[in-house]
Design a protein that fits this description.
binds protoporphyrin IX containing FE; binds copper (II) ion; 16 helices; single chain
């Protein structure tokens, strides 16, 4: 590709430090959260783990959900963004702001973790009122968001610098995708910031006596659904731009990729009511509009499935694969990054179908608040995103640090273990959910009160899956620690992206999908259409409210 900034410098020591500082928080959060996870899986199956109690369970589920879904993901995504931007422009600007944002977010994580681990904030990662947490929980999470805004600003700046340098040539697909994700985050985080600043923080400090749960939930899901795309877009970025290269192939269509990320920017936010189908106080017509938009947003994911499969087929055939499916075998499964992503995609395939069930207005009532829900999102954020991120670190940490990937054999089987563990954990839990097993209960027999055989086999298999997952998680953390301290070195490199299969004559030009600023504005308009009236109604109806409850 005629790439004006092709021969960029590798990351310098300051840039490397910034990237690794973000990785370190991600890995630390992941390690603690994984330890919590295995105890939860066992507890649900009525295995007597030491210290097992409802109080412990809800503390643990809160810590696990927050550390995995909010901390591990966000810090990984920020690290990846910095790496992509450094590759794009050769030098990261605004290092002071980047570090300031980092420390704001780290202080936020520390406050939040302290409040959860000292049993002052067992409110689960959705922190729905009237469950009430210690103010440090809300203030801490708000600081994490504020810290991430510094990153958003930097990403958009780097994208603009790259665009200016390139003139009529587009920036790399990875930079385009990263900027789209940063803008998406800028669009949705005000929802949760308003929930925190005007409702939950004053309420937890005692300045406000009551809070309106439906309004708070609506603001949460204004942020909560785009949050899932904030996790998935970086995974897609790696699938489009890095996977085909590591697999030895080409990206099937670059313009399709650009379109996909722009569409996500437009319609990820005005869909939040699909998490509130069962909530009173929101008219069905608005829920229906959000349903239609949700159906629309499955389109870019279907395009992605097609484009990535085609790219992989190109890779498999270039490696000599023959026949209808022979190319799958010839993919480099021994490369831990490739296999992690391939397994992540296989699990996501199932998760995608489950998601279509959740999003259907009527079917949602079958699965709402059952175990199905967390079975589903362990395939999406817990695998499609998380396993891709782990695989990406196997590739990116050695590349930028110049330290060889350590414990390679363990790294090679870790993705397979995750795949086996997650299949056991998630598939059985989906089935149990269909039988009516609730989510967020510490004992699925209700401490013996229910006929256990209802879902005994499911929760047992699920717990075994949880143990396998834990082994996989430990393997990942060990590989990372060993790599960061590895004495064996290799030359420091720069990120290389997959070449597109077809390059138009004269190279790519900036197209309509590259104009992210324009799509951001369209996104804002759609958000106003989807939210202004129902939110206005909720605000003007806010009369009763609830005091806080702290059951544990
Ligand atoms: C190490 C493997 C993992 C195991 C064994 C595991 C297991 C569990 C279990 C048993 C629950 C409690 C469900 C309930 O009672 O409702 C849970 C909740 C959750 N998990 Fe995981 N999990 C793992 C990895 C992950 C990953 C990688 C993520 C995301 C990056 C994740 C995100 C969540 C979230 C957001 C919740 C919901 C908490 C809530 O309902 O408030 N988990 N997990
Ligand atoms: Cu959603």
């Amino acid at each position: 590709m005629s790439d004006a900034l092709r021969n960029v410098e590798p990351a310098n020591p300051q840039e490397r430090k910034l990237i690794f500082a973000n990785f370190a928080v991600a890995i630390g959060a992941f390690a603690i959260a994984a330890a919590m996870a295995v105890m939860q899986a066992l507890s649900r199956a009525d295995v007597e783990v030491p210290g097992r109690s409802a109080r412990m369970y809800y503390m643990s589920v809160t810590a696990h959900g927050v550390l995995m879904a909010l901390v591990f993901t966000t810090f990984f995504i920020m690290a990846l963004g910095y790496a992509v931007a450094q590759r794009e422009t050769g030098r990261l600007g605004g290092m002071k702001l980047a570090w300031l944002s980092y420390w704001i977010a780290v202080v936020g994580v520390a406050m939040t973790a302290w409040s959860i681990l000292t049993f002052k904030a067992s409110v689960l990662y959705t922190f729905y009122p009237p469950l009430q947490a210690h103010p440090a929980f809300y203030i801490g999470l708000t600081l994490v968001v504020v810290g991430s805004w510094g990153w958003v600003y930097r990403m958009i700046q780097e994208w603009r610098i790259a665009r200016r340098v390139r003139g009529d040539r587009p920036v790399s697909l990875a930079m385009h995708a990263t900027a789209a994700n940063a803008m998406l985050w800028a669009l949705c985080t005000p929802g949760v910031a308003i929930e925190m600043l005007f409702h939950l923080i004053p309420w937890s400090l005692g300045i406000k006596e009551t809070v309106d749960p439906i309004l708070a939930r609506s603001l949460f899901w204004f942020f909560g659904h785009p949050l899932v795309y904030f996790w998935i877009l970086p995974a897609y970025t790696l699938w489009y731009t890095v996977l085909p290269r590591l697999a030895g192939g080409r990206l099937f269509s670059e313009p399709l990729g650009r379109m996909v990320f722009a569409i996500f920017l437009i319609i990820s936010t005005p869909v939040g009511f699909h998490h509130q189908f069962q909530d009173p106080g929101i008219p069905a017509s608005w829920k229906l509009l959000h349903t239609f938009l949700t159906m629309a947003i499955s389109f870019p994911s279907l395009v992605t499935a097609f484009t990535i499969c085609a790219s992989l087929e190109v890779a498999g055939r270039m490696r000599g694969g023959k026949g209808l499916f022979g190319w799958i075998r010839t993919l480099p499964w021994g490369d831990p990054t490739v296999s992690a992503i391939l397994f992540a995609m296989l699990l996501f395939l199932v998760g995608g179908f489950g998601g279509a069930v959740n999003a259907a207005y009527a079917l949602n009532s079958v699965v709402h608040n059952t175990a199905w829900v967390f079975a589903h999102f362990h395939l999406t954020v817990g695998s499609a995103a998380a396993l891709t991120f782990m695989g990406a670190m196997y590739w990116l940490v050695p590349l930028i640090s110049g330290r060889k990937l350590a414990l390679r054999r363990i790294a090679q089987i870790q993705p397979l273990l995750w795949f086996i563990g997650m299949s056991l954990f998630s598939f059985t839990t989906h089935l149990a959910g269909l039988k009516g097993l609730p989510r967020r209960v510490m004992s699925t027999s209700y401490s013996g009160a229910l006929p256990a055989q209802l879902w005994e086999v499911h929760t047992l298999l699920s717990a075994i899956g949880g143990v396998v997952l834990f082994v996989s998680a430990v393997a990942f953390v060990f590989v990372m620690i060993a790599t960061f301290t590895n004495k064996q070195t290799e030359p420091v490199g720069t990120i290389e992206y997959a070449e597109p299969l077809h390059v138009p004559e004269g190279g790519f030009r900036v197209m309509i999908w590259d104009r992210l600023g324009f799509w951001f504005v369209i996104g804002v308009v759609l958000v106003i259409i989807a939210y202004a009236i129902p939110l206005y109604d909720l605000i003007s109806l806010e009369r009763f409210g609830s005091p806080g409850f702290r059951p544990y």
